[in-house]
Amino acid sequence: MHPEALVRDHTIYACVIGSRAFGLATEGSDTDRRGVFAAPAPLFWRFDKPPTHVEGPAEEQFSWELERFCELALRANPNVLECLHSPLVEHVDATGRELLGLRDAFLSLRAHETFTRYAMGQRRKLVADVRTHGAPRWKHAMHLLRLLASCRDLLRTGTLAVDVGDQREPLLAVKRGELSWPRVESWMTRLAREADDAVAGSPLPPEPDRARVEDFLVRVRRASVDA
């Protein structure tokens, strides 16, 4: 089966992520679409397995096969978890609703490590930009601040909020380069420290509920055989 046919015929969940989902869209912002497709189980019986992900067919569109998506979400991959919690859902069928019903099963203290590790990597790139060019890429600095705040709030509340809410204007000021780099860097340091401090009292479990997610995946595979 052609990869695009898998996306067209077997997508169970599709959403918009990025600036539009974060509440940070401005004129000219891209519309980044993400989705999850459940490849029919018989396709896995062949030597050539279904793809773990598909780019397209539309611009800025990317989809994961269900098993790969669940694996990444269980590892607390920030991009995948944000996809699950996007406020801008474009398509969801009965299986997709079951997946959304499992959102809490994917959340755990692993998020602290994955979010902060990703943030540290991005911060190093920003520092390198400052050394080389005298200024960071302000759009990337804005999104790093958003990610750190999201991590902190997730650890504090046990809930992943994607929309930045009343932080829209302060964050857009960063994107426009209206704050000095030392001030932005201090903001990053504070958010990272607050995330670290939130771990001890976090309502999140130490590990995700892998068994619950696996049970869902097996049921979806069995249903596709019987269909």
> How many domains, as an integer?
2
Mean of residue pLDDT? Answer: 95
CATH topology of the largest domain: Beta Polymerase, domain 2
Count the beta strands: 5
Counting helices, strands and paired strands, the structural category is: alpha+beta
Main sheet, how many strands, which sense, barrel? 5 strands, mixed
Instruction: Note poorly predicted spans.
Output: none
Task: State the strand order across the main sheet.
Answer: 3-4-2-1-5
**Helix and strand run:** HEHEEEHHEHHHHHHH
> What radius of gyration results from the CA coordinates?
19 Å
Identify the overall geometry: globular
Q: How far apart are the termini?
A: 17 Å
- CATH hierarchy: architecture of the largest domain: 2-Layer Sandwich
Helix content: 55-70%
Beta-strand residue fraction: 5-15%
Helix count? 11
CATH class of the largest domain: Alpha Beta
